[in-house]
Amino acid sequence: APMRSDVLNFVHDSLRKNSRQPYAVSSKAGHQTSAESWGTGRAVARIPRVRGGGTHRSGQGAFGNMCRGGHMYAPTKVWRRWHRRVNVQQRRFAMCSAIAATGVPALVMARGHRVDKIPELPLVVSGNVEKIKKTKEAVKVLKKLRAWSDIQKVYQSKRNRAGRGKMRNRRHIMKRGPIIVYKKDDGITRAFRNIPGITLLNVKYLNILKLAPGGHMGRFTIWTEGAFRTLDKLYGTWKTGSTMKKGFHLPSSKMTNTDLNRLLT
């Protein structure tokens, strides 16, 4: 499928918004004082001012967004349109682009993955990997595939988060490692889940937020044989449509031959 980063970015951005929680300031914020304008003739601004005396607060401007302690401009409301609906065909097109990019070494390396020693991309392993139940066996598999250097990169990338998240149980951040796509979970999730940076996905429930984090296509993906064969049924081939998604055919490029001289002669 054509790798359309613009479609992928749009879909990723929209789907990511669906996990947002509504927030808003209090409807009373900035108005919890009795203030009234002094009117004209006093050579001061007509902004409402706090009543009373005997304190620095009396006589200070109130309510306005230009005042200390006043309300904000356009206070946030919980009824904002937080979520986005994305067309099914667009979602499928973006997913096809993300899957196609996992087989392009240049795009995978551009995301920062250490794949220079990987035998080939896309990387497809035997279905026996799905039956692994121990983490030490999973580590052996990754070392045999020469994918362990990408995990070491994740270990070395652990650092403190910038901003307030440090105080909200999100103190550390790490880079993303490989994603493992399987067909049947016979223990594979238990084996790989404790290795930092690794994401596990069932081929029938592929997630574009995991396959292309941040909207950047080309995440290093390890497919099991069964999962890789299922892709033909899920999204079809160039000759046949999908048997699992009604009416879906792989998107094709409008220009099949980019050699203009050959077309014109």
Automatic annotation (TrEMBL):
Q: Name one GO cellular component term.
A: ribonucleoprotein complex
Family matches, as PANTHER family: 60S RIBOSOMAL PROTEIN L4
Lineage summary = Eukaryota, Metazoa, Spiralia, Lophotrochozoa, Platyhelminthes
Residue segments, region Disordered: 21-40
A GO molecular function annotation here is:
structural constituent of ribosome
Coiled-coil residues: none
Q: Which InterPro entries match?
A: Ribosomal_uL4, Ribosomal_uL4_dom_sf, Ribosomal_uL4_euk/arch
A biological process (GO) of this protein is: translation
Listed A to Z, the keywords are:
Ribonucleoprotein, Ribosomal protein
Q: Which family does it belong to?
A: Belongs to the universal ribosomal protein uL4 family.
What this protein is called in its record is Ribosomal protein L4
